[in-house]
Design goal:
This protein is an alpha+beta fold. It has two domains: 79 residues, no CATH class; 304 residues, Beta Polymerase, domain 2, CATH 3.30.460.40. Helix content is 58%, strand content 8%. The protein starts with 8 loop residues before the first helix and ends with a helix.
Length: 392
């Protein structure tokens, strides 16, 4: 992915509104045609679309409106980016089926999240959204066995086997297969640390379903658990990409079977009530998605949601190239959790829960040392100060 250039007023006035329009499930082709007239640099628009993961949305909108309405340079740039995205989708889908076969033969249960499963569920098409990796959820008790199976099948684990044997828990268990660009992120109930409360993993498996991906049934989270997960994932990353908001809007619009009462309960089980409300309000404010009737009262009553959404809207167009400063990040974590004391506990846990970047030695003994935990906040402060200087 090309680096995102600094957005100037012209790009914010022309490129960004077009991407907002194409990402909405309530697409207005007349608006797309009108907004596209102001596009002066198609390559700049495509770079912004790639950064926000909405290349497929853009290409689909141009095709729906009719290519004859747009400059040839814009259509050509969008088509080229779409071909690149389709190639990635096809490769990752094939990789998903390969992983599925390995885990079935190993008799290890897994659930697909995000990626092609979410694309099929929310949009009805595995290529309707962008994704650069695959995400699978397994029980923590199975992670060592899964790692051994994947390594034997030719995958390379970013987390050393000795660290996993010693019960070290990284931010995610990342694997890639030699000779390919395929990346797998394996998650367990212990590595999903951005959930305010521990995942009820057995409930997830009990409520699981299958999603048809290119005609093949793939085990997946229930639609309700998936919705809560993408709300937490968006909050984890400060909702810096338009694609994540588009996913929320698409599930609201395209999944009438979703049980919103079940979503409320699932969110309460993991302490993500406000995260879900913010996700809904974002989809409404940014992409015009209607807030489900069953959720309207909760979203309206939680006045902090509107404040958080305004903050997100201020950094959203920049696609992560100008992320919130360290203090803003801390305040966001504090408020996104809910009540003051719950937010403080959540922020403290994230501040002191170590990942592989904090480990003194990736192959050290089991558990986390006090020194590593205490060193983590200072490492994070240094990291984000350095990023701030690089941008200035």
């Amino acid at each position: 992915m090309r680096p995102l250039p600094q957005l100037d007023p012209v790009s914010l006035r022309c490129d960004w509104p077009l991407l907002i329009e194409v990402a909405s499930p309530l697409l207005d082709t007349a608006n797309v045609i009108e907004r596209a007239r102001g596009i002066l640099e198609p390559e700049r628009l495509i770079t912004l679309a790639q950064q926000h993961g909405v290349v497929a949305h853009l290409f689909s909108a141009l095709a729906q409106a009719g290519p004859q309405h747009f400059a040839a340079a814009l259509v050509g740039a969008a088509r080229s980016a779409r071909k690149e995205q389709l190639h990635s989708v096809m490769s990752l889908t094939a990789e998903l089926f390969r992983l599925q076969q390995i885990l079935i033969e190993s008799r290890i249960e897994f659930l697909a999240t995000k990626g092609p499963a979410l694309a099929c569920r929310a949009y009805g098409d595995m290529a309707a959204r962008c994704y650069a990796d695959l995400d699978l959820l397994v029980r923590h008790a199975d992670v060592l066995s899964v790692t051994r199976q994947l390594v034997a099948a030719g995958y390379v684990s970013q987390t050393p086997l000795s660290a996993i044997e010693n019960q070290r828990v990284p931010g995610e268990y990342i694997f890639h297969r030699a000779g390919t660009q395929s990346i797998l992120e394996l998650q367990t109930q212990r590595s999903f640390r951005y959930f305010p409360r521990p995942l009820p993993i057995e409930d997830f498996f009990q409520r699981s379903t299958t999603v048809k991906v290119d005609g093949r049934a793939v085990p997946a989270l229930s639609a309700e658990d998936e919705f809560v997960l993408i709300a937490v994932h968006g909050a984890k990353h400060f909702w810096e990409r338009l694609m994540w908001i588009a996913d929320v809007a698409a599930m609201i619009y395209n999944c009438p079977e979703v049980d919103w009462k079940r979503i409320k309960q699932a969110a309460a089980d993991v302490g993500a009530e406000r995260m879900v409300r913010v996700a809904l309000l974002l989809a409404n404010r940014v992409l015009r998605a209607e807030i489900p009737r069953e959720m309207e009262r909760e979203v309206e009553a939680d006045t902090a949601c509107a404040t958080l959404v305004r903050k997100i809207e201020s950094w959203l167009p920049y696609g992560g190239s100008e992320p919130p400063a360290l203090v803003q990040r801390a305040l966001f974590r504090l408020r996104i959790r809910g009540e003051l004391f719950a937010g403080a506990r959540y922020l403290a846990r994230l501040s002191f829960s170590t990942t592989e970047e904090d480990w003194s030695s990736a192959t050290g003994g089991p558990g986390t040392s006090l020194r590593e935990s205490l060193r983590r906040p200072f490492r994070l402060a240094k990291k984000y100060r350095r990023r701030s200087k690089e941008r200035s």
